[in-house]
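Retro notes, structure queue

What went well: the backlog is down to a handful. What didn't: a couple of records were mislabeled last round, so from now on we paste the full input next to the output in the thread. Example, using NADH dehydrogenase subunit D from Haloarcula pellucida:
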Amino acid sequence: MGTDETAMSQTVAGATQETHTDLLAPIREYVVDEERHLNAPAVVVRADEVQTVLSTLKAEADLDHCACVTAQEYADRYETIYHLRSYDDPTRELSVVVPTTSDDPTSESAAPVYPTAAWHEREAYDLVGIHYEDHPNLRRILLPETWQGHPLSRDYDQSQPQIVTYREHQRLLEDERTGPDRMHLNMGPHHPSTHGVLHLNVELDGEEVAAVDPDIGFIHRCEEQMCQSKTYRHQIMPYPDRWDWSGAGLLNEWAYARAAEDFVDIEVPEYAQVIRTMCGEFSRILGHMLAVATYALDVVSEFTAVFQWGIRDREIVQDILEDLTGQRLMFNYFRLGGVAWDLPEPRAAFFENIREFLDGLPEKLEEYHDMLTSNEIIQMRTVDTGYLSPETAKAYGCTGPVARGSGVDYDLRRDDPYGYYDELDWSVATEDGGDNFSRLLVRMREVEESAKIIEQCVDLLEGWPEDDREIQANVPRTIRPDPDTEIYRAVEAAKGELGIYMRSDGTDTPARFKIRGPSFSHVQTLPVMAEGEYIPDLVATIGSLDPIMGDVDR
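Corresponding output:
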């Protein structure tokens, strides 16, 4: 290493140590032990001091974003990990590790400090079996209440029968004043306005929504467990496409690639990074076009124009990605260390197709605005409905267009750079309204920014020297990270922050694989956003969140 490189390394190490010290200073007296996860420092704290530690970190260390909660069982203990970040600077990270004994897996709940932790802890209780004291509503979330045992616990008997008996629906509000105007409404799970197999228990007080209880788990497919049985190098990559079938699969692939590459220190060639960045933005356009098209269908039953325009423009992008990847939905194009193959030949024709799409996009977006955002009915149904304040968005771990529609200026492409984003000219789209209309505007503006990024990538790829087109790094055939190595890494997917936690046991398959889907946090906000509004407002609010239930249930 040269003198300049050594000095730079020492500077980075010094800055990291300074940040580490800064984060730990407010909670030093509560730290039982320290660990090092590859993405962040980690501290071990007692199970009966969780709320004290987390509230201190939130208030004094500015760690206001509980990005993910991971639960797992070891041979001698249970463990909960709170992955904390700062909305102002997501590279400012800390993992809070909370072990419990095997015979009494009980810990304080983080939900009083971070409301978003409520659903994460319900999942940890449901699948792993950890109990959380002071939790506002600790019950199963993915499995039926009648399920016996916890499927991710080491002593779970997979051969036992699971007979789920019928249980009468219960009212959400225990209110003695319940009278003829109070009604329970089942919305979904088979309903076009729930964007998938989402069931909402809705309590109506006359025409107003008194309470909403989202009921998820209908499409839980054990994606995390399937990834835990697959090898890092070859077998996991086909699965991320299936977490979000709106077309954003390449961004999902990137989430796994980023985590795995940082896990074993793989450096991706610059040329491949440009291709990845272009692919990621095409995927973002696919996701947002579907969101806008179906929103028109949800809110004004606009099937003949906006919906068909959205599908038309998605088809053009899918044609481009099919030329590149060979697939229209389950792309499986990214590889650890790069991409599967180079751009299709003849390259000039491929670039011409992309430029033709980009050249026609501004006029098409103007038509979208004429028919959608300028539509009086859309405005009446979306302006000032489904309000989500910036504080509430952060409390529930919202990211992506949902958070940016509330004025939360948080985008991992800029704030925790990866790929080629920090070399390009583009802007983060935000709106301050916090309502359904603002979230629609953010997605449409993001399509414009994605087009700017793609155009710059095409300019770079057109002029890239032929002898320097390296599409993959030299990756070992078999990957075996060191035992007990842990990492959490995320990318800015179309829906928001898509994170992956992995722990290694020294073999070529993960010991724990946890997916942090952005829609999981967004659906959790529905009760806050819908209370006091009307059923049509609830339909508009669901659509504005753009949830994909495979992303929620995994």
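Agreed that this is the format going forward. Reviewer comment attached to the example: The chain has 17 helices and 15 strands.
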